[in-house]
Amino acid sequence: MNLLKLTVENFRVFHGRHVLKLDVTDGKPAVLIFGMNGAGKTTLLNAFTWALYGTFTGDVEHQDRIINDRAWAEAAFGASVHAASRLEFEHEGALFTVLREVRAVKASEAQDLPRPTLAVTETRHGESIEVKNGQDRIEKILPEGLRRFFLFNGERMERMFTGDGAGDVQDAIKTLMGLEIIERAIGDHLPAASRKLTAAAKKLGGGRLQQLADAQEKVEQQKEAIRRESLKLSENISAYKREVDAASKALLENGQAAPLQKRRVRLAKELEQEKIRYQELQEKHRRALAERGFIAFTSGVDQTVIDLAEGMRKRQELPAGIQRDFITGLLEDGYCMCGTPVPAGSAGHTALLERLENAGLADVQARWMNLRGNASRLIDARKALLEELREISAELQAVEARINDLDAEETDIARQLKGVDVVDVQKLEDRRKEYDDKRVEALGAHRDAERDMERMEEELTRLRRQFRAAKVEDAEAHRLQRQVALVDEVLEAFRRILDVRTAEVRGQLDARVKGVFSRICIKPFTPELTPDFELRLHATAAGPAAIRSTGENQILGLSFVGAVSEMAKKIHDRKQKTDEANLDEGGIYPVVMDAPFGNLDIEYQDQVAESLPQLTSQIVTLLSQSQARGRVLEHLQSAASRVYVLRSVTSKEDAKEQTITINDRAVPYVTRGDFEHTVLEEVSL
Ligand SMILES: Nc1ncnc2c1ncn2[C@@H]1O[C@H](COP(=O)(O)OP(=O)(O)OP(=O)(O)O)[C@@H](O)[C@H]1O
Ligand SMILES: [Mg+2]
């Protein structure tokens, strides 16, 4: 996807029509748009999302007032007024125009707008067609699930991975890498086929087959009911969490409760980190045992090996050379040890010759020495393992104690808050506690449901196996039975493929996030994308979880976005070369980011400004003058194909007119005019 042009008309702060050209030249992937507070940066980002998906980002207020206030006010009653956002882009050899528009006949001063309309046009070889189901087409080009990676607000970046975000991130990545197609086959298509065949076979097969198919059906229904319940539970968990957050926020805003609540928030954060640390330690413990645990049981065996080897060496039983001489002697004598004659050509003679040739003989001594060496190394390894396990246990204990302390402190704060002699505070605290209890309870129920589903899945596997193995007389039923077996096999193969591919994608993304992050962050923090696609940050490569600041969260988010777009691009390039279309999804995606520097320090801004343009082939950046100074501005400008200014026009008499310096030229930034609005102006470079 390659963005070409965005046209907005009477869209929120924009009065009349404004055009933003987006085509960039090679090596200069950036389009920079400067605007002061309220000029319309977030509005422009939303002009992209509204055109593509008909929605705004969460931070936009009064989302129903799409038409520019002035345009609405100017219109006579009964006249038609409209707002539009039109995005033109190129994708896989075709030109697309996406036009979203809302048109209303003015009947009152307040905007009462109908549903916006969408028109998508596709042009190939000069021929244009109206795309029938435009939204579906857009969904195929840039799925809405991916928009968090490609159209986003840098200030809100840190929320990308917290709370409910993680699951969405996993889904979005799966979409991007084409894994979700396999997932759908496993989840829907193949089981449906299997069910249909099973039902048909059951009718013909009778008896045992019928009984098994019925049992299978019953478990499947139970599982489906639990799945639905589990879904409902996770929705509830999110809803309860929102209530808890809202109450916490209100407590923070209350003068008397604020200090206690602040401490609690800090505690909760610490508690979360400690719990993660606890899990990590448990995992480390588990891994040490799984990989090296056996060493603990070799105690004694290794000493025996050493003693044996030493003994044989001392008794000179080992040197292989002597044994060779001994056999040579027997051959020359023509008699075996037991007195049997072994003349040349006899079976015994041949056997002895073979022995003599056997290279193993010469090896024996070396092998024994080797074994002896390994045995003594095992003793060292056992000592080290025990030491390590002891350390982990001590650390686990310490973390556990710390968790208990924090828990106790939290309970104490809750008690103190309850004691604050203000009705509001008590109510809020009660509410917070009520929903937090509900949340914890729902979490438990959710875990139980997941476990039940696993159990049922095992039961289903068992029933299917029995179904496949059941004896059937009817030939047609037998044929269907074999087909069920085939579908099950394919299903199993797809499951394996999904596992492998998911692990692969995770591994690659993990490596990339690490790379991009270390380019930007000055601390030795190491990000990790867990097998559940949760993004974590460690203080050092193998160390505990890092306590991250808002800015560090942002860098983490940026690294992730960068890694995702880098990877999508790489897959796309490979696809071009090898023509393996449909194998992977991938693709080139533009990045549109509002306030890319959010809370970042100047030092980080500098690194980010340098790294961003390397991540993707087109990057539209919306920022204010204060967000880009000195080196940051230099970096950005040197990567820019186009620069725009959102000139704020104000009607305020005493407002100071302002300019912004771009390429050593003063460009109007704030000017006076008849009414409040914004003008989008390109600055020639
Ligand atoms: N329907 C509308 N008509 C006129 N102005 C509107 C309309 N809807 C929103 N606005 C104005 O648009 C401005 C919001 O712009 P926006 O949020 O895009 O600013 P921004 O450049 O992102 O600012 P900041 O730097 O503070 O994030 C506000 O001043 C708001 O009053
Ligand atoms: Mg903004």
From TrEMBL:
One Pfam family it belongs to: AAA_23
Coiled coil: 209-291, 375-473
InterPro entries with a match to the protein in the record: P-loop_NTPase (IPR027417), Rad50/SbcC_AAA (IPR038729)
Keywords, sorted A to Z: Coiled coil
Rad50/SbcC-type AAA domain mapped to chain residues: 5-250
Keyword field contains Coiled coil: yes
Source superkingdom: Bacteria
The keyword Coiled coil is annotated on this UniProt entry: yes
Family statement drawn from the similarity comment of this UniProt entry: Belongs to the SMC family. SbcC subfamily.
Subunit structure comment from the entry: Heterodimer of SbcC and SbcD.
Protein name: Nuclease SbcCD subunit C
Species, as recorded: Streptomyces chisholmiae
